[in-house]
Amino acid sequence: MARQKKYSEEEVVEKAMNLFWKNGFESTSMQMLEKEMGINKFSIYSSFGSKNGLFIECLNSYKIELNRLMDKLRATENGAADIKQYFYDFLEFSKGSDLGKGCLVTNTSNEIDIYTDEKITEVLINSTNDVKQLFASSLRKELEKDELIIEQQADYLLLAMFGLSSASRLFTKTQLHNYIENTFKNI
Amino acid sequence: MARQKKYSEEEVVEKAMNLFWKNGFESTSMQMLEKEMGINKFSIYSSFGSKNGLFIECLNSYKIELNRLMDKLRATENGAADIKQYFYDFLEFSKGSDLGKGCLVTNTSNEIDIYTDEKITEVLINSTNDVKQLFASSLRKELEKDELIIEQQADYLLLAMFGLSSASRLFTKTQLHNYIENTFKNI
DNA sequence: CCTTAAACTAAACGAACGTTTAGTTATTTT
DNA sequence: AAAATAACTAAACGTTCGTTTAGTTTAAGG
């Protein structure tokens, strides 16, 4: 062994993640990443291999943060009301300095031409499935209903969450809250 | 006067529009546009000034097409049921070869860093307002209710439409139809 | 203490981007 | 028919992108 790294990979990934979250994948250049992460291009490449490789680490870092929100929902047993709270929690979680930052997974799904990068696509699909399963199991606790209804309501709320996170980058807090309230009127 | 143009600007704009619609603004290169529009870069620049200038023409061309859908809704007087039909009509309108293409306005809102290009932002905002006003006036015909309720329901449906068009690029027809049905249960 | 190897800096890489320019062709008008 | 002018072709422009490479510094192991 020789020299030790001056930086923590975990720390620089989190910085990169926040930059990707705010600006998107394509609009975030290696130059911006160098500055934000505080390390040289060479160090980025030696630690993560490529911009894609770094981005995948960022997606994983994001999922860990998002999982703290999901754990809160997992811990409760009141069905739809808790999912609604999850929607509000998400808005708080994704708050930017002015408009919201959306969800890194959703933003990426909107940006990336699907199936362009196999590994990234896989993370996105898995993450989406996780959220749907979380909604389904939350609904199951409340409803004791036909699995078909559970499936449909979970899918509905999945798309609503997808829409909300996309919309959070453009619409006002009032509009977003109004959207949540109306979404849960009939659940 | 000297030579006449070999191409119709209207025709090449529509071809460009479809390319932007499918691939997004950034991912559509001048090289791709040359090929798809069947004219040289020079001709594109002499007709439209810049990539942004061409794109704005494409947004206008898109709005003309979208207005045909909106006219159908304008012509009816049955409130929410017709708006629901508009949602289904939109899915048909935005159908791609495999997954949907979404809405050019929504796709652009998701892609562009808001307020980066003033002119583009203006078109996006105006277009969004138009849709909201269309929903509001449709609801007004049915409801005879408090303007506040109209406003809230129109905003709710606006965000639902925004979410649907974003989701249409990623989710299945079944999921999208299920989303529409559940959305209108709340109206 | 000296060798060695990994982490560092900084510069350059080729490719692709949007845009411009120089030079040619074609058609209208005088 | 000649002159004029706009549409055309094709090549090159300067930037920026992600990535790589050459050369230097640092510190651990024998």
From TrEMBL, chains A, B:
Domain of life where this protein originates: Bacteria
Keyword Cell membrane belongs to the record: no
DNA-binding region: 29-48
Keywords: DNA-binding, Transcription, Transcription regulation
Name the UniProt record assigns to this protein: TetR/AcrR family transcriptional regulator
UniProt-listed InterPro entries: Homeodomain-like_sf (IPR009057), HTH_TetR (IPR001647), Tet_transcr_reg_TetR-rel_C_sf (IPR036271)
A Pfam entry, by short name: TetR_N
Domain HTH tetR-type: 6-66
An example Gene Ontology molecular-function term: DNA binding
PROSITE patterns: HTH_TETR_2
